[in-house]
Design goal:
Elements lengths: L8 E5 L6 H17 L8 E5 L5 H10 L5 E4 L16 H6 L4 E4 L2 H6 L4 H13 L3 E6 L3 H7 L3 H10 L10 E4 L13 H19 L1 H6 L1 E4 L8 H5 L6 E4 L6 H8 L1 H4 L3
Parallel strand pairs: 1-2, 1-8, 2-3, 3-4, 4-5, 5-6, 6-7
Helix pairs in contact: 1-2, 1-11, 5-7, 7-8
EC number: 5.3.1.1
Subcellular location: Cytoplasm
InterPro entries: Aldolase_TIM (IPR013785), TIM_sf (IPR035990), TrioseP_Isoase_bac/euk (IPR022896), Triosephosphate_isomerase (IPR000652), Triosephosphate_isomerase_AS (IPR020861)
């Protein structure tokens, strides 16, 4: 497999938190915190995923203040337009200069009953509009006990990548459902084992070059105190951060993992 330098991606999924005014204050404070710490912008890519109602406001702020954060949506419709009340088209996200969109988050699978086939259709919708899908896969504690750590996420990713072109730009996020919000993260070894198998799926479906350049993230109770261990693993290229991405100092410390953990 070809070796490439994958820029680490630290992604903050705000979920249903922060209105558009709170979002402005948060992004400004995060930017100032990183600037005061002399964070090198090119060393790590930072992406924020606000609620839909915040996107235009955050986009305007990033543009006006020349803040080098990428912007992403938390979901999108499998449809491009039409009579789909409450849905958000990938076209709308693209017009807001969004780079990324989260697809198949465990909460969408659990609470909105999204199937692997729906997630595959949303992946295609993202790619149609030039968005980079952050494809989330992961197992519940029941899955873990019954099938082991990698079987379910591997199967989910195989379906999501059906029909995806070999030159497509994608991100894969491994989020063990049993770890999300529990305070009990997977171990670095556990994360590495599954992320390596997910990269192998990308290689099988899209080819070795795609596998070499595709970033695989870990998500599940990520904190500044444990990011070091994950980022030392060869197949972990960043983190999808939930609760900790809502705390400026904590999220800034996660972003700055290269400085304070000696990776």
């Amino acid at each position: 497999m070809a070796t490439v330098n994958r820029t680490p991606l630290i992604a903050g999924n705000w979920k249903m938190n922060l209105d558009h005014l709170q979002a402005v204050a948060f992004v400004q404070k995060l930017h100032w915190t990183l600037k005061e710490a002399k964070h090198e912008n090119g060393s790590v890519e930072v992406a924020v995923f606000p609620p839909f109602t915040d996107l235009r406001t955050v986009q305007t702020l990033l543009d006006a203040d020349k803040i080098e954060f990428a912007l992403g949506g938390q979901d999108l419709s499998a449809h491009d337009s039409g009579a789909y009340t409450g849905e958000i088209s990938g076209q709308f996200l693209a017009k807001l200069d969004a780079t990324y969109v989260i697809i198949g988050h465990s909460e969408r699978r659990q609470f909105h009953h999204e199937t692997d086939e729906i997630i595959a259709a949303k992946t295609q919708a993202a790619l149609r509009h030039g968005l980079v899908p952050v494809i989330c896969v992961g197992e519940t504690s029941e899955d873990l006990e019954k099938f082991g750590a990698s079987a379910v996420p591997v199967g989910q990713l195989e379906v999501a990548l059906e029909g995806v072109a070999s030159d497509a730009d994608i991100v894969v996020a491994y989020e063990p459902v049993w770890a999300i919000g529990s305070g009990q993260a997977a171990t670095p070894d556990q994360a590495q084992e599954v992320c390596a198998k997910l990269r192998a799926v990308v290689a099988d479906k899209l080819g070795a070059d795609a596998a070499a350049r595709t970033r695989v993230l870990y998500g599940g109770s990520v904190k500044s105190g444990n990011i070091a261990g994950f980022m030392r693993e060869p197949d972990v290229d960043g983190a999808l951060v939930g609760g900790a991405s809502l705390v400026v100092d904590e999220f800034a410390a996660i972003i700055r993992f290269q400085k304070h953990v000696g990776v």
